[in-house]
Structures are given as C-alpha cells and as structure tokens.
Amino acid sequence: SLYAPLAAFSADDPSRARLYIPVSTNVTFEACTTCEGKASGYAAQYVFGFGLGLGVASSKLAISSPNTDFSLDTGPMMDIGYTFGSDFTFTFGLGVGSSPTSDKFIPDVNYKIEGNSASTSFFGLGYSFGSIEILLALRNSSAKFDESYNISVLGMSFAASYANEYQWQTTDIGIGFTF
Asked: Could you count the other beta carbons within 10 Å of the beta carbon of residue 57?
C-alpha cells in the first residue's frame, strides 16, 4: 500500500493529550554579560492516533540585569507536530504566534517596544506506562520586536529605532494521557 511507510512510523494509540512545562532555560545575551534569564510557560497538545498533533504554547522570559528587570512574552502560539511510535515516542514540531509583548522600560527615555512575531520549534521523547505518558522536550522560542526611543540631551533630541530578536531554549518535562 502507498501509505504503509507512513503507517509504520505513526502513533498507534487512539489519541494523546499532553502538557509540558519548562524546567530549565538556556539563553545568552550578547551585550550584557551579567544578565540572566529564566523562562516560564506551557505547551498543550492533542495528538491524533495517526500522529498529527495540534496545540498551543506560550513562553515568557524574565530577564534580570544590574540596571533593569523586564520580561518578554511570546503570547499564544499555535503549534503543529508529528509523533512517531507507540510506547516509546519521538515528536517534532513548529509553532507561530503574532502578538509578543514586553514590559521593557528605560527610565528617563521615551521608549516604545512593539511586538512583531513569535515562533517555536521543538522535539521531544516520550514513554508510555499504559494510559500515562512521561515526556521530555527541547524547545527553542523566539520573539521579534521593533524598539524605538527618543532622548533629549542639552535641549537636543535624538531618536533611534531598530528591530530586535530574542531567542531562548528550554528543557521541558510533561505528562500525557492516552485514551
């Protein structure tokens, strides 16, 4: 049959409901060696018996530095994935969103930040113990912003604007239910 290769690698269970949360964050800041970041958020996914998964994910990165603390939020992202296997599973997928937000603020400056887009990519492993599934995933998230500011110094006004992209990776753990 034409679909035999696809059926051989697809998920065999009727369906799965999965929930992931980040437990560790990996992020680097080029212009700030003392900055630290910690991610929070979730990913929820429904996987059909033939392997296709649809879900929603959101990731928030809290950034702390000696000068200021702020956060970036991807907002809700729709993701699509595919799961191979039955008891031991491998999943990969992509997601996109369009409404990232930030509470970044620079004192004494007319500062504006506007979200453009957000995206995520992930791959994960799972092991099923009957109707319960234990999950581990690596997720890459990014959010793009347009940032601009006006500052007055000695009666002269200076303006600047630029596009900025923030990227971070998380290791997620999760639980799934097969039914």
From this structure: 24
Query: What residue spans of 74-130 are helical by DSSP H?
Result: none
- 96-123 pLDDT, tens digit per residue, is 998 899 888 777 777 888 899 999 999 9
Q: Which residues contact residue 74 at a Cβ distance below 8 angstroms, ignoring those fewer than 6 apart?
A: 41, 57, 58, 59, 60, 97, 100, 118, 120, 141, 142, 143
CA 138, CA 52: separation in Å to the nearest integer?
19
pTM (two decimals): 0.85
The DSSP result for 15-56, as a single string, is EEEEEEEEEEEE---TT-TT-EEEEEEEEEEEEETTSEEEEE
- pLDDT tier at 33, thresholds 50, 70, 90: confident
Distance of CA 95 to the CA centre of its chain: 8
Q: Return d(Cα 62, Cα 150) in angstroms, integer.
A: 25
CA atoms within 13 A on the CB side of 35: 17
